[in-house]
Specification:
By secondary structure, this protein is of the alpha/beta class. The protein has helices spanning about 5-15, 20-30, 35-45, 65-75, 80-95, 100-110, 110-125, 145-160, 170-175, 185-200, 205-225, 240-255, 260-270, 280-285, 290-305, 315-335, 340-350, 350-365, 375-390, 410-420, 470-495, 510-525, 530-540, 595-610, 610-620, 625-635; strands at about 55, 60, 100, 135, 140-145, 395-400, 425-430, 445-450, 460, 505, 550, 560-575, 580-590. The chain folds into 6 domains: about 5-75, Orthogonal Bundle (Arc Repressor Mutant, subunit A); about 80-145, Winged helix-like DNA-binding domain superfamily/Winged helix DNA-binding domain (Arc Repressor Mutant, subunit A, Orthogonal Bundle), CATH 1.10.10.10; about 170-275; about 280-390, PRD domain (PTS-regulatory domain, PRD, Orthogonal Bundle); about 395-490, 3-Layer(aba) Sandwich (Rossmann fold); about 500-635, 3-Layer(aba) Sandwich (Mannitol-specific EII, Chain A). The longest helix is centred in the C-terminal third of the chain and has 30 residues, at about 470-495.
Length: about 650
């Protein structure tokens, strides 16, 4: 039974927060419902007396306290496949003359066949861009490579341990083997480093500083073993020396060890690939590589035109150029930055993530570097921040206050609404009559202190002196109205773009075969050509288009379709798609003339498929095109 799948089961339940059936969990994990029941029993057995997963008529739900105890139990549970893999990697990293497989199998209390399997997993890990290699002579295996490459392998293990925003210091210390560094010392070093960087004028990225602190822990642990990095040749730049002094001083204070010049300068280099100096951005393009700035401006200009988004601000271009310059340095040093919010950003803001993918594709071509999902998510954070600034105040709904005049009561109410709800609604009129013309009020919302003759979704009854419950009701009404409008637009668009001839029930295979099968339906009808299909496959290679646990939306990055159309494929059981498993695939072909529709359809379509129960309802009842469309429209209208 896979301990890794048990842990993933707990993570899925914690992320969902509610009850999930065995069938839904089996779809996500790609196992049978019977296996789910076995996993639940095994997980609960790992923490006797403290159930991690509760069972009930509605399925299963994770208990947060039990999940925390499970992590603690995992810390002292040797012999699991993951623990054994980490121990083997650490042994290989520490043994300059290699390991004897017979002795290692005995030390790990496993058979030599099991150890051979673990060794295959190590070989797969070091093969992917680590500059390390496993060299074998008979029963002896040596991990060949530099000290820096070994540290990168430890760092990649730690990054793999992080999931969905979790940053468990104890778990990360165990994974990288830095048990000589206490969690308190780690936290102290990270906090003081962030404070000092801020005082020096650097923009502090909390994820980046935490990552730098993790690398510092690795450096301290390796230095204590006598495995310091060699001093860097040549004269380092002044900025490197300044940061190296900061890192060395703080490390000695927190960890009680004086790092050598090689370690200090290495950590300074890592920091410089992860921070941005705001002063540089305000002063202009000084310090930015002209090639990077040109590439960023070209990419931003193109996506602004194609996606109809406002990304043409000078500050944004310079900030992003500085970030990309650091990204290029990370790519060159293979010092990738982990973003624990990647999954969340992709699922919650698919349109923003798609714009980031398009920018990353452009930059990859122009600068000749591969850009990973985590790095795309950082670009999406830049894009999302800029779009949020650009639309500040632009998404407010209009509101009319109906409050019969009594001294200045209506003015006090207007002030209270502006203070409490100014970000959500804009008051455009105050009606002080006791008999207002209700039909003549054309604002989005009506906030009234008197009972209206006819109830309405857009009319919200409030008290003359605004209370917290009034504020909550107005916010809920505003959210319902915005969602209803979005989904109404989506319903109109989808009915235009769907076609019974482009609906397939019973798809299967890998991503490429599914894309080609659905793409062929669009090619046959002259919507796209084979080049668009190839473009969709290339887009998929950059970053998976599985935006939820059930839905993938493959498409090309260029809007070259003759008209906008969507081919739908439904799998009888979930199929692997990137790191996820999906059951609905919507191959979207977008035309240049429908650029606005891209945003409406893309983002809202993903939103509809974000509800697990709704997805299962569509899949269960959508046995043919008519049934699929009926259920989809019913859910949109509900």
């Amino acid at each position: 039974m896979s301990r890794q799948r048990q842990d993933r089961l707990v993570a899925i339940l914690l992320r969902d927060g509610g009850w999930m059936t065995a069938a839904a969990l089996s779809d996500v994990l790609g196992v049978t419902p019977r296996s789910i029941r076995s996993y639940v029993t095994a997980v609960n057995g790992r923490v006797p007396g403290h159930p991690v997963i509760a069972s009930g008529p509605a399925g299963y739900r994770a208990h947060p306290t039990g999940a925390a105890l499970l992590k603690e139990a995992g810390a002292s549970a040797p012999g699991t496949p993951r623990d054994r893999l980490h121990r083997l990697i650490h042994a290989l990293i520490d043994a300059d003359d290699g390991l004897d497989l017979h002795d290692t199998a005995a030390a790990l209390h496993v058979s030599e066949a099991t150890l051979e399997g673990d060794l295959s997993r190590v070989r797969a890990l070091v093969r992917t861009g680590t500059d390390l290699a496993l060299e074998r002579t008979g029963p002896r295996v040596v991990l060949a490579g530099t000290e820096l490459a070994r540290r990168r392998l430890l760092s990649s293990l730690a990054h793999d341990e992080m999931d969905d925003g979790a940053f468990d210091v104890e778990a990360l210390r165990r994974v990288v083997g830095a048990t000589t560094v206490s969690a308190d010392a780690f936290g102290r070093f990270k906090g003081e480093l962030a404070a000092e960087l801020g005082a020096l004028g650097y923009f502090v990225n909390e994820f980046a500083v935490a990552d730098a602190a993790l690398h510092a822990s690795i450096a301290v642990d390796r230095a204590l073993q006598g495995r310091s990095l060699d001093a860097v040749r040549g004269d380092p730049e002044a900025e490197h020396e300044r940061l190296a002094e900061v890192v060395g001083r703080l490390a000695e204070a927190a960890f009680g060890i004086a790092l050598g010049p090689g370690d200090r300068l290495h950590l300074a280099s890592l920091l410089l690939t992860r921070v941005v100096v705001p002063g540089t951005a305000r002063a202009g393009a000084g310090g930015i590589d002209p090639a990077v700035e040109t590439a960023v401006r070209a990419a931003v200009s193109r996506v602004s035109r194609e996606y109809l988004v406002a990304l043409d601000g000078e500050e944004f271009a310079l900030r992003l150029a500085l970030h990309v310059q650091n990204l290029a340095l990370r790519a060159r040093e293979q010092a990738w930055s982990r973003n624990p919010l990647t999954r969340s950003i992709k699922a919650t803001y698919p349109m923003i993530f798609e714009v980031a993918v398009s920018i990353a594709g452009d930059l990859s071509e122009r600068l000749g570097m591969a850009i990973r999902d985590d790095e795309i998510a950082y670009i999406a954070m830049h894009v999302g921040g800029e779009l949020e600034r650009a639309r500040a105040g632009g998404t407010r709904l209009t509101a009319t206050i109906v409050c019969p005049g009594y001294y200045e009561l209506h003015e006090l109410l207007r002030s209270s609404i502006a203070r409490s709800l100014g970000g959500a609604v804009e008051v455009v009129e105050v009606v002080t009559r006791v008999d207002p013309d209700w039909r003549g009020i054309d604002s989005d919302l009506v906030l009234t202190t008197i009972e209206p003759p006819t109830p309405s979704e857009r009319i919200v009854r409030i008290r003359p002196f605004l209370t917290e419950s009034d504020v909550d009701r107005v916010q809920q009404a505003a959210a319902r109205l915005r969602r209803a409008r979005r989904l109404a637009r989506l319903r109109m668009e989808l009915e235009r773009y769907f076609d019974a001839e482009m609906f397939v029930r019973g798809i299967g295979g890998d991503e490429q075969s599914v894309i080609r099968r659905l793409g062929a339906l669009l090619v046959e009808r002259g919507v796209i050509d084979d080049g668009y299909v190839d473009g969709a496959i290339e887009r998929e290679r950059m970053s998976s288009t599985a935006f939820t646990d059930a839905l993938a939306v493959p498409h090309a990055m260029r809007m070259t379709a003759s008209r906008t159309a969507i081919a739908i494929g439904i799998a009888e059981s979930p199929i692997a798609w990137g790191d996820s498993r999906v059951q609905v695939v919507a191959f979207a072909a977008f035309s240049e003339s429908d650029r606005e529709a891209f945003q409406t359809v893309f983002e809202q379509f993903v939103e509809v498929f974000g509800g697990r129960d709704d997805v299962q309802r569509i899949i269960r009842r959508g046995t043919d095109f008519a049934g699929f469309l009926d259920e989809l429209v019913a859910i949109i209208g509900s």
